[in-house]
Amino acid sequence: MPTLFEKIVAREIPADIVFQDDRVTAFRDIHPRAPVHLLIVPNKAIATANDIADADETLVGHMFTVARDLARGAGIADSGYRLIINCNRDGGQEVFHLHVHLVGGAPLGPMLSR
Ligand code: AMP
Prior knowledge:
Elements: H1 4-9, E1 17-20, E2 24-28, E3 36-42, H2 57-73, E4 81-84, H3 88-91, E5 100-104
Antiparallel strand pairs: 1-2, 2-3, 3-5, 4-5
The structure holds adenosine monophosphate.
């Protein structure tokens, strides 16, 4: 079964895609938690951070350089932003297709609620 995000990558279900190349796709989170909230996903399915293979190092690095460029494009590079990867139950992962959240555009407060 393709993941929800594989369907977005393949444009089988709608999403507000802001960037796509042969390795990654970035789109707006459907429930934004900040003025800027993008998800950067590998085009191929990797379920969780635990499933990143050594051979995926370049791909995962590319996810971060794309996130950097999207932050610049959104005008939040200097004000700052947060990159988040949730993993499994305790990490609060809901969609089991690796993704980096890029959130910013407002002060985000402490990293974790106390
Ligand atoms: P996580 O908890 O890290 O797995 O985050 C999954 C994220 O995917 C959440 O922030 C959701 O709001 C987001 N999301 C779920 N479905 C969609 C969708 N169809 N399009 C865009 N974002 C989605």
